[in-house]
Design brief:
The protein has 467 residues and is mainly alpha-helical. The strands form 2 sheets. A two-stranded antiparallel sheet has the order 1-2. 44% of the residues are buried. The chain binds arginine (ARG). Arginine binds next to helix 6. The site of arginine (ARG) has 10 residues, from helix 6.
Length: 467
């Protein structure tokens, strides 16, 4: 370990090697090297334009930063150990390649605004990709629902059979929660999309910088409003982990339903062998491991939110090194979320609804429909409710189904589903409207994600900017 760049005589000699190594974030930060280099390329462009660095020097630095970007993209950039973080490691690498001119890059910049930038670029990029993938999953669910209008299942409350629904309606329920979670990702994307560069260590700079130019080059629509707030702000990371947890929770519910529905007790969903796992001992087993794991991954998603909340709680204003502990949490979030979304995308086409009509045949789940039929004939609801309750009691006492002791069209589960056309209900027209709305939401979210420039597009934009 060397770790000399960010030290002066005032700092004093060298840090104990063991402590430098222990306190370095480089092992994780390496994952942010492209973000770091992009930020530096935009920054040096601005410095040249403002006359703070000579054009030739800026050109040399920008070209070499582009080389670093390409090497990093191809997995060929090996940043040496021995620095406190990726920012120092990149500056040290530039120094090895270009000599003293590398020392001009950090003009009007601190690692405090730099790390905020790297994290924001990372979160924005990953949130946009995740948003597109979640929206694709919503589209998948919306597309399969019409084919499942005629499959009937019981809906549950308190995990007891409640009322008949179509499988399409169940699928729309899943997609509706997922769309709500996707809106939170959209919110996180909106919040993160602000440039922190130019905040310096905590108060800005006396040098004549142009924050708006840097923001434009990096595709940010705005710059942050207060330098002291900016360097201590990890709200964008919190929003991102929270958004990820919300998507994971939504997927966890789909998974929990499928685990139950595919049991022989429920018998409402059949899983293809392609997504089932076996038992090492019990030859008969066909287990829903993928869905159990999806449900299980939620724990880590929630853990990441908790870790970040706990990290920022009690921190005073300004940058605090504690903030470096955000790294693991933030960097883990995208692969956790996107991996789980991809697993669901791969697995769901292999989960097929089979009819749940056996569970509906004894008629008790249509009891409310019978009561509503009586209401339509003028009976006050509470009276109808009591009458039907008595019928259910009689049927149970006689060991019969409701349909066997009372013949009423309302007891047909198919008719019961068809009649529930209130907005948001399980009736076919209502479900069609839900499917339409889901598709519109998904399209809007995809359009939002598409407005986020890729890293490669940013490179082109920066390199095209005159120095
Ligand atoms: N490694 C630091 C982090 O990840 C970068 C900022 C350090 N700033 C400082 N003044 N030591 O948060």
């Amino acid at each position: 370990m060397s770790g000399g760049i960010a030290r002066t005589s005032a700092t004093g000699g060298r840090m104990l090697p063991a402590l430098l190594e222990w306190s370095s974030s480089l092992s994780l930060d390496r994952q942010l090297v492209r973000e770091d280099v992009l930020g530096s390329a935009a920054h040096i462009t601005m410095l040249a334009r403002q006359g703070l660095v000579a054009t030739d020097d800026a050109r040399d630095l920008r070209v070499e930063l582009l080389v670093l970007y390409r090497e990093a993209s191809e997995g060929k950039l090996a940043l040496a150990d021995g620095e406190e973080d990726v920012h120092m490691a990149v500056e040290a690498e530039l120094g090895r390649r270009l000599g003293a001119v590398a020392g001009k890059l950090h003009t009007a910049r601190s690692r405090n605004d730099q790390v905020a930038l790297d994290l924001r670029l990372h979160v924005r990029d990953q949130a946009a990709q995740a948003l597109r993938e979640v929206a694709a999953l919503i589209h998948y669910l919306a597309d399969r629902a019409p084919g499942e209008m005629d499959i009937l299942l019981p809906a549950y409350t308190h995990r007891q059979r409640a009322q008949p629904i179509s499988a399409a309606f169940q699928v729309c329920a899943w997609a509706t929660q997922l769309a709500r979670a996707a809106e939170v990702v959209d919110f996180a994307l909106e919040r993160v999309d602000v440039s922190p560069l130019g905040s310096g260590a905590c108060t800005g700079t006396s040098l004549p910088i142009d924050r708006e130019l840097v923001a434009r080059l990096l595709g940010f629509p705005a710059v942050t409003k207060n330098a002291l707030d900016t360097v201590g702000d990890r709200d964008f990371a919190l929003d991102w982990t929270w958004a990820a947890a919300r998507v994971l929770l939504a997927l966890g519910k789909v998974a929990a339903d499928l685990v139950d529905m595919s049991t022989s007790e429920f018998g409402m969903v059949r899983l293809d062998g392609e997504i089932a796992a076996g038992s090492s001992m019990m030859p008969q087993k066909k287990n829903p491991d993928i869905f159990e794991l999806v449900r299980g991954k939620t724990a880590r998603g929630i853990g990441n939110v908790t870790a970040l909340l706990t990290l920022v709680k009690g921190l005073p204003s300004g940058y605090n090194r504690d903030q470096q502990e955000d790294r693991q949490t933030v960097l883990e979030t995208a692969p956790l979320l996107r991996g789980t979304v991809a697993a669901m995308m791969a697995a769901l086409p292999h989960a097929h609804f089979v009819s749940g009509e056996k569970a509906l045949a004894e008629g008790f789940t249509q009891a409310t429909d019978l009561a509503e039929a009586l209401v339509r004939r003028g009976v006050p609801f509470r009276e109808a409710y009591k009458q039907v309750g008595q019928l259910v009691r009689d049927a149970l006492d006689q060991g019969k189904t409701l349909a066997q002791i009372e013949s009423d069209p309302a007891l047909d589960p198919r008719a019961a589903v068809a009649a529930k056309e209130s907005t948001g209900g399980t009736g076919p027209s209502s479900v069609k409207a839900q499917i339409q709305a889901l598709k519109q939401t998904a399209d809007r979210l995809i359009a939002r994600a598409d407005r986020v420039p890729s890293f490669d597009a940013l490179v082109e934009r920066i390199m095209a900017e005159a120095l």
